Amino acid sequence: MEYQDEDHLCFTMEEFALATENVSSRQRMSRKRNYDDDTRVYKSKNLEIERRRREKLSTRLLMLRSINPIITNMNRGTIIVDAITYIEKLQHEVQRLSQELHQLEATSEKTAEAKVDEIDAVEDMKHWGIQAEVRVAQIDENKLWVKIIIEKKRGRFSKLMEALNNFGIELIDTNFTTTKGAFLITSCIQVKDGERLEIHQSKSLLQEIINDISSKSE
Amino acid sequence: MEYQDEDHLCFTMEEFALATENVSSRQRMSRKRNYDDDTRVYKSKNLEIERRRREKLSTRLLMLRSINPIITNMNRGTIIVDAITYIEKLQHEVQRLSQELHQLEATSEKTAEAKVDEIDAVEDMKHWGIQAEVRVAQIDENKLWVKIIIEKKRGRFSKLMEALNNFGIELIDTNFTTTKGAFLITSCIQVKDGERLEIHQSKSLLQEIINDISSKSE
DNA sequence: ACCCACACGTGAGGC
DNA sequence: TGCCTCACGTGTGGG
Description:
- The structure is a homodimer.
- By secondary structure, chain A is an alpha+beta fold.
- Chain A folds into two domains: 64-127, no CATH class; 129-217, ACT domain (Alpha-Beta Plaits), CATH 3.30.70.
- Helix content of chain A is 55%, strand content 17%.
- Chain A has five helices and four strands.
- Chain A has helices spanning 6-21, 47-67, 76-128, 156-166, 199-217; strands at 133-140, 143-151, 169-179, 182-191.
- The first copy, chain A, has a four-stranded antiparallel sheet with strand order 1-2-4-3.
- In chain A, β3 (169-179) and β4 form a beta hairpin.
- In chain A, α2 (47-67) crosses α3 (76-128) and α4 (156-166) crosses α5.
- Chain A is rod-shaped and about 120 Å long.
- The first copy, chain A, starts with 5 loop residues before the first helix and ends with a helix.
- Chain A binds a DNA duplex through residues 2-4, 9, 12-13, 15-17, 19-20, 42-47, 49-51, 53-54, 58, 74-77.
- Chains A, B: It is found in: Nucleus.
C-alpha cells in the first residue's frame, strides 16, 4: 500500500547517497535499476533478495498480529510483546484447564476403572467356564451379603426378584449393574422372621433359583 | 555475543560510507561518535534512538523465541512463524480442553439440571395424592435416570421390576435401598430399541405403574 | 565462489 | 516543531 515503486526506490537510494556523502557534483543516476551503462552506480546484488526478506518478515508479523486477539498497538515491537503475553496467557490457560480436567477425571474415572475391572472379571469368568457366579457371606444372624453374576437377558432380574420374594427373601440394599453381556448384582438380603438362616442352604437356594431362571429363559 | 562494540560500529559506518561513495580523499572520521568537530560527517539525529529500537526489537524477538518450546531455526522469520504455529497449537489445545471439560461437566450437571426441572413435577405428584415420588431425567436419547420412593412393602420391588420389564423398560444400573418404611430406588433405564423415548410419557407410565402396584398391595 | 541473514544508518511520514 | 516507527539499500560474516 505504502510501498514505493521501483523508480522511487532508486531515487531514494540516490538521495540517501547524496545525503550521506553530501556530494553534489555527481551526476544523477538512471531511474532504471537494471541499467548498468553508468558504472558509477553501484547496485548491490542482494537488493531484491533483501526486499523479499523484508516483505516476508512483514507479512509474518502481520500474520502474528492477526491471530492473537489482544492487540494494544500496531507497532512492530508491541506485536511481539503482545504475542509474548498472549502465549503466556495461553500457556497458563492450558495448564489450568489440564489440571482441572485431570482433577475432574480423577473423580469420574474411578467408576470407569471399576467398570473396566468388572469387565475383566467377567472375561475371567468366561475363562473360568461357568456363566453364573454366586457368592454368599454372612453379615449377622439374619442378614447375608450376596453377589451374583449372570448372563444378561431381558427380564431375568425381575424374575430373580420375584423368585427371591417367593422364597421369603427380602432385599435390603441392592446394587445392580449391567456390563456388556452380564448382570452384576450385589445385595444385602434378609430372610423372613422365624426362618433359620444357613449360609450353605441359602447359597444352594440361590443357585437353584438362578439355574431355574436360566433354564427357563434359554 | 556477536555484537560489536561502539568503536567497531563507528568504523563499520565509516567503511560503509567509503564503500558507498568511493571517496578516498576524505579524512578518516574520529572513532568517537559524539565528536562533531568534523562537520563533513553527517550524523543523523535519531541514530542512537534507532539503535535502541533495533536492540529492543531484537531482545523481544529473543524473548519470543525463549518462551516457545518448538523452535526450528534461529532465524528472525522462523521465530515468528514458529510463534504463530505455537499460538495456533495452544489455541487448539485450549479449545479442545475446554470442550472436553465442558462435555465432562455436562454429564454431571445434566442430572442436576434435570433434577431441578423435575422438582416441579414432584410438586405435581403431591396433587396426585400418593406418597410415591418419581423423578425422571433424560440422560441421552434412549436412556433415562429415574428416582423412585415408595412405601416399603414386601414384593413391591419385584413387582415393579416385572411391570417395568413388561413395558419394555430395561434397567441398566440400579441402586436399591430400604430405609425406615420406604424403598429408595435410583436407576438408569433404557427403552426397547425402536421405541421412542419421551420424558413426560415415561414419567406418566412410571407413575401409573407405581400407582397400580400401590393400589394392588394395599 | 555464492547465498543468506542480520545490523547498520538514514529519509519519509504520521502524530 | 520534535518524537517515533518503518522501509530502504548496503556491508559483512557465516555456511
